[in-house]
């Protein structure tokens, strides 16, 4: 390699590092902005319901009881997931059509618009309107596309970058709720949304200054070809989803129900549930930052998927057994030592469960993005995120029904059976060339 070629290679590496670090910063700001207002929303809903009751626009039958507030909050979250379900594929197509920089700017401007409407929401209608711009609020999707395209064909580098995206999100998601609660402590439920507007605008500026103009270097070097229509790109997204190297992987997108179970079955207090979830988040953040790359080099993305599926099914059944035993134990004893002992065991299993989910998710995204061309990665990731939103709409209802039918054991037996079936299915249906491509 000549001196000039070495300089060009070093320059390329430095530029990739800069793009990734700006993306990490943007994801921290995105998670921080989102979480600043999220824990305040139930209280904001309560205050708006009480206000509308006083003004006479709500009947006395729709009082500000906890059930009414919970129902409104649930409807709001379902509407948000509905917007994301349709919006994620659109953002994916935009990534492939106009590139990372412009799509990122659109995403963060949409976030700023959503938070601006929320910051001035004087009634419940405006609260729901504030979720409409979230159709394009897909910053993590854009970050994944940036990681996938910036790291080239190196699967271990791609897995490491994807893992660090989760670490960056966890940093913002850890700080955001506490800071949002503190800011709203004096009764101003809109202040978090106002700060979120500023954070989103800052991310839009960073995106315009530092992110690449196109997500596909090869496309920049090739002569221009006939431009496809948006409908053509939508059809191509459907075609991508049906490829034999893709559809088995998309089927593995399954939601967990650990927080619901810890709340309803073990009857944990909010601070105990928060401790369990925080420990899991910190473990995932540390694992993504330091252990994902060595694991990807050792197992490959296909091995990561199978390991995550098998580990998750085993740990889920262990958790179900713990719940069955400890739920009855907690009814007969309330000693501090017993509760602390149970809490520590649940924390350990929950951390391992969270890590297995993280390994599975990273392995899946590493595998899927490696199985398509670079100018198709945005559309693919849009499909993945759309499936996440679909699962958030229907998954909790199914899990709750199973939970009410027989407790956690039926839930984890169903999830574990699906995981084992998917492990077998991936080994049979996924072409051998695809398995080797990302190892």
Automatic annotation (TrEMBL):
PROSITE patterns linked to this entry: MFS
Keyword Transmembrane: yes
Subcellular location: Membrane
Membrane topology: Multi-pass membrane protein
GO molecular function: transmembrane transporter activity
Any Gene Ontology CC annotation: membrane
InterPro entries: MFS, MFS_dom, MFS_trans_sf
Domain Major facilitator superfamily (MFS) profile: from-to ranges: 19-434
Top-rank taxon, per record: Eukaryota
Protein name in the entry: MFS general substrate transporter
Organism: Fragilariopsis cylindrus CCMP1102
